[in-house]
Description:
Helix content: 55-70%
Largest sheet: 7 strands, parallel
Structural class: alpha/beta
Distance between the termini: 51 Å
CATH topology: Rossmann fold
Mean pLDDT: 91
Shape: globular
Radius of gyration: 18 Å
Low-confidence stretches: 195-199
CATH architecture: 3-Layer(aba) Sandwich
Strand content: 5-15%
Number of helices: 10
Strand order of the largest sheet: 3-2-1-4-5-6-7
Amino acid sequence: MSSVRGKVAVVTGAASGIGRQLALELARRGARLALSDVDELGLGETADRAEALGAAVHTARLDVSDRAAVEAYATAVAGHFGVVHQVYNNAGVAGGSTVLENSWADYDRVLSINLFGVIHGTKAFLPHLIASGDGHVVNVSSLNGIMGQGRMTAYCTSKFGVRGFTESLRAELLAAGHPVQVSVVHPGGVRTNIATAALEHARAQGQELTPDDEARHRAYTEKLLRMPPEQAARIVVDGVEAGRPRILVGNDARAVDLLVRLAPRLYPVLVARAERRFAS
Length: 280
């Protein structure tokens, strides 16, 4: 029996990418779904596809950086279904550059969505998960929640924060004996539009993008974002069903995890060398 069958699962950032595929994978396994995103058009498409798989679906436009909105959303979902079992805090963005080049707005945007969005979702839904008697918090970090990387300080800060927050939460819930499992997810290179969306956001903000910026983006998406999001979603839900506290998605995530553990002093040098070769 699938551990998600019949459960009410909340997925943020469900309009595309890993979020959409998580919703569809959960639908295939018999979950009831509460789906949200700021992209209402994409969210509607995800909902239609999940309903075609037989899932009961509740949708809402939601900006996870808005604390009051997330709290109201949690109340609405619990009122709609009567119970909430699982929350997948998946919504996230890429963006930013070096510390010298980043604006405060760059840091505010990435941290408010990637880190505080996870905190908002966890804190708002946690009482409902405890009340369900069989809850699960699933927070999506990144390969860059294991390994720091240049030109990604805002993103890495947010994803390391998600990891620390989630591991601390797990310790708290274990100590308190609450009936809620906790998992942190570290995806490697998954074929989503997160990098392209970051580039488009930079253009919309009037930032000048150099030919080097464009070339780096093309190389990043073509060489590093290889795993289909459908496969990533299966790995995540398999990990949730197995009760794994730490879910590494992809060989690249596993390799980085091993490198950082074995060579904590050396890995930043290797990453910097790889970055120079990658940008050339």
